[in-house]
Specification:
6 domains; single chain; five-stranded antiparallel beta sheet; about 700 residues; alpha+beta; Beta-Lactamase
Length: about 700
């Protein structure tokens, strides 16, 4: 009853073995059931006490149930520990106080690439000697081991391998009876993690570099409408420091608060907006035209947590677009002016020239004289209008020379005082040692006169007109300058008044042809357009600053030249004009103009031969007994232009001088609006005096 079946079988087998006379162990284990029915493990020790041939056994039983349970628990614990250490991705090494390896897992052997025969030695020092050759800094590795074996503190360090691997090393003391009985070493391979961290850091650096180095302003904002991050371009664009901007309200940079709500409506509806046109305000209050491209930022659950966007300042692009439209408009008017100018100036030459010739045959007290004078004056006013049209469209001809602008301004002072009137005070501030510029002196005077007249009309009750010259070096960053400015040295001419000033809307259109705020009978709207055209054609820049009721300043910047001042050609005394006996070939396709010019020249003693076109003129030159000293030719003609005729003449008769006349020359004898240095030119319409003076000047030139 006390023995389970399994135990009965054990005892039976032992009994049978004894009967066979076999030598069997005197100690064995069986299970029994005690009085309370509990199954116990017992150890039985036996000794035979019977006579020979008699089976009699003395046995002692010892309850080993708790011991067996402890052994099982220990084995289970060991198996669990082994399972844990083998399943972990970390290498584990346990060393006792004598330097003997008491436990390792397969991951440790794999990580350190230790041979099997070396592991069988269980010698920690041999393992250390083997692995240190793999390390970049073996000295630090050994030093850390010595430090830790001398203390009961845990340890941690990073191990760098020659092949690029990286391990974390953790060490914990094994304590027994309060003393260190060894150490547990834990090795974690973090190579991939370090690579990922480095890649992440590089990615973050790349992102930050792109973020900070972008020329466009980039921002990140919260759902509540506060900036959480901005790049350098954003700070520069708006004029804030990072401390001022981060944490500030996004709404603060909007010029119109309603634009913010329009933007929010669009981005919440679409999730993103692209090139949202908007006006934004800098710290100093100035307003920019901007394009805003932005997207929402979402959390993992899809909820909106903020916004991120790029802001591009397109103010300059808008200005350039407007400038391009303005240029197209002026080009169109210029083409119209150029197309009309040639024929129109021929007609004006005929009208004014014949009126002038008729006047020469009359006494000044003759009633017809005054009528002819009115005709001539009207023709000259029409000619001025044509010249203004050509000026603002930059199609007039300039005859520049190197000069000091102080001399131009000083020479004009008396005339300017007469123009502006006694109720306006004229003040000049002329810089000493002013740099040289190369401009057409006559056209430059016209610019100053037009600006002075404009200033006078802005001061109906009197005021002060100031003319200033100054040497100045411009850069692309110069305050108030535009991007089209070529960096370099310039001479500035400023014309300022303290008159009525002008609105921003008026200021944007002041250089437009025919734009005027004056009464119908007070101007044509071409004065400032002419100024603009002359300045631009001279290679300069003009800007205007104005405030209502405070006045206006026009600043002109003309490029400096490194050349000597050109002497002014001596003028011709009017009394010398009649003297002229040279032979002249007159080439003009308009009969009336040709006949008129011929009469003027012949009337002053010249011998004149006439031709209606270039081909006829060239043939006539071969037929003449006397080669003419001068050819006066129109520029635009059928059957060959004036310049083409001049080139053929130069090859056959290089001694013949040539004078060109035209109402509009395009690019025939000019380059960028500047007359070629070897060309002589007379603008139509011309008076008798103009023609005779220019002919004499060309004939008498060296």
């Amino acid at each position: 009853v006390l023995l389970p079946e399994e135990s009965r079988e054990i005892i039976q087998r032992r009994y049978e073995a004894r009967e066979r006379g076999e030598d069997i162990p005197g100690r064995y284990e069986i299970k029994i059931v005690n009085k309370s029915g509990e199954l116990l493990d017992v150890e039985v020790s036996t000794v035979s006490i019977g006579e020979p041939g008699e089976i009699l056994v003395l046995g002692i039983m010892r309850d080993i149930t708790e011991q067996k349970r402890a052994d099982i628990a220990l084995r289970e614990s060991e198996n669990l520990l082994k399972s844990i250490t083998e399943s972990t991705g970390e290498g584990i090494l346990v060393v006792d106080e004598n330097g003997r390896v008491t436990h390792t897992n397969s991951r440790f052997i794999e990580m350190w690439r230790i041979p099997e025969d070396l592991m069988e030695t269980k010698d920690d020092q041999k393992l250390i000697d083997f692995v240190q050759d793999q390390l970049i800094d073996p000295e630090a590795f050994l030093l850390k081991i010595r430090e830790l074996y001398a203390t009961s503190e845990p340890g941690f360090d990073i191990l760098q391998f020659k092949d690029g691997r990286t391990f974390e090393r953790y060490s914990y003391p094994l304590m027994r009876s309060g003393k260190v009985a060894g150490r547990v070493w834990n090795f974690r391979d973090i190579t991939h993690r370090k690579q990922a961290e480095e890649e992440l850091l590089m990615s973050e650096d790349k992102y930050r570099s792109l973020f900070e180095d972008s020329r466009d302003a980039i921002y990140i904002s919260s759902r509540e409408g506060k900036f959480t991050d901005v790049n350098l371009a954003m700070l520069i664009m708006f004029g804030y420091s990072k401390e001022e901007m981060v944490g500030s309200e996004v709404l603060d940079i909007y010029n119109d608060k309603d634009d913010r709500f329009r933007f929010m409506h669009e981005i919440e509806r679409l999730g993103a907006v692209r090139d949202f046109a908007i006006k934004l305000r800098r710290k100093d209050g100035s307003v920019m035209d901007c394009l805003l491209t932005a997207t929402v930022r979402r959390a993992e659950d899809g909820s909106v947590v903020g916004y991120q966007g790029i802001i591009r300042d397109v103010s300059e692009a808008r200005r350039l677009e407007e400038q391009f439209r303005q240029a197209q408009k002026m080009e169109a008017v210029g083409q119209l002016a150029g197309g009309v100018a040639h024929d129109f100036n021929n007609l004006l030459t005929i009208i004014s020239g014949n009126a002038e010739l008729a006047m020469l045959s009359l006494n000044q007290d003759d009633p017809q004289y005054s009528e002819l004078h009115e005709i001539q004056e009207a023709a000259m006013r029409a000619a001025d209008l044509t010249r203004q049209l050509l000026a603002f469209s930059r199609k007039q001809i300039l005859e520049p020379r190197v000069l000091n602008l102080n001399e131009v301004v000083a020479k004009m002072e008396k005339m300017l005082k007469r123009i502006i009137g006694e109720n306006i005070e004229l003040t000049t501030h002329l810089q000493d040692d002013l740099w040289m510029v190369k401009v057409d002196p006559g056209k430059t005077e016209q610019v100053i006169i037009n600006l002075a007249i404009n200033a006078r009309d802005a001061m109906p009750d009197g005021g002060e007109l100031t003319l200033e010259t100054q040497n100045i070096e411009l850069t692309s960053d110069s305050v108030g300058m535009r991007r089209e400015v070529v960096p370099g040295r310039y001479v500035m001419v400023a014309v300022s008044d303290n008159g009525t000033g002008m609105t921003e809307e008026v200021r944007e259109h002041i250089f437009d042809p025919f734009f005027t705020t004056k009464d119908v009978d007070k101007g044509t709207g071409l004065g400032l357009s002419t100024v603009y055209g002359i300045v631009k054609q001279s290679g300069g820049y003009i800007y205007v600053c104005s405030e209502l009721e405070r006045g206006t300043t026009f600043k002109i910047y003309l490029p400096v030249v490194e050349e000597e001042v050109e002497p002014v050609k001596p003028g011709i005394d009017l009394e010398e004009l009649p003297g002229g006996t040279e032979t002249i070939l007159l080439v003009e396709d308009q009969d009336s103009v040709r006949n008129l010019a011929g009469r003027i020249l012949e009337g002053q003693g010249y011998t004149v031969h006439k031709a209606g076109n270039a081909l006829e003129a060239y043939s006539l030159l071969h037929e003449l007994d006397t080669v003419p000293e001068l050819v006066v030719t129109d520029v635009v003609m059928p059957q060959g232009s004036g310049p083409e005729l001049a080139e053929r003449i130069r090859k056959s008769w290089p001694q013949i001088r040539v004078l060109f006349t035209s109402g509009y020359t395009a690019d025939s004898i000019v380059h960028d609006g500047v007359l070629d240095r070897d060309k002589q030119f007379l603008q139509k319409p011309f008076s008798s005096l103009d023609l005779l003076q220019k002919v004499r000047e060309v004939l008498d030139a060296d």
